[in-house]
Amino acid sequence: MEPDIGPEDCPTVDGIPRLGLGTYRNTDPDQCTESVRTALELGYRHVDTAAMYDNEVAVGEGIRQAAVDREEVFLATKLWYTDLGRGDVREAARASLDRLGVDAVDLLYVHWPTETYVPDETLPAFAELYDDGLIDRIGVSNFSPELLEEAIDVCDAPIAANQVEMHPLLPQRELREACDRHDVELVAYTPIARGAVFDVPAIQDVASKHGVSEAQVSLTWLREKGVTAIPKATGRDHIADNWASLALELDDEDVAAIDGVDRRRREVDPSFGPWN
After folding, report:
1. Which among 44, 53, 109, 189 is annotated as catalytic?
2. Which residues in the chain come in under a pLDDT of 70?
3. Nearest to 168 by CA among 140, 183, 190, 184
4. Angle 24-5-238 (CA atoms, 0-180°, nearest 5)?
5. Catalytic annotation on 53?
């Protein structure tokens, strides 16, 4: 039985719904379209994609097929690191908008701070998109605390979000503190560590206590930390199970047990990551 949870039950911060649908590796066009449509009709109002995912067309089609007004959907995408030169940002952003079939997106991220990313060239170009109404918010992704502070100093428009890998096996304490200091929303990708949280005894125990999945426990733990999560899911059952996490409440004992997990694991670790 699917949860009776509506969009109004999902908390938002500065207009960003705290639970969204991630679409990384959802590259089959029909499946991706159906995943997005399903999520929106279940109650999701936050959809995350990227130019590099090669699915913006399908994501846009899923939004159009859903019985939900476009204005109700918080849509985020990202520009790949080859398109961050000042002369390339506008063209790349417009290409993403065309693929998505929208006039503007709610959030546009710098996907990785590498290759053509030059702060005092890339971020002013993003600020121009913001000023022109093509994007409602500027985001960065995979930025360390130091890179985040640099971006805030350089960009004339506010930095609204920093999207990074975060889950109970990668709690990102320092980065969370940096985001809190600067009023930047932390958005967690890979929030269930690609399934690794299923094998953590502390998380298993909390899930058993509440009669829910380990995925729901991880997503709720993130919400308890003041973090937005965008779990990737393709099938209806997983999409619905993640959404059901909004009905779960963890007590202090639960949170402390998860905080006490000393196992550490990073799932996304390219050689160009700023932590390497």
Report:
1. 53
2. 1-3
3. 190
4. 35
5. yes
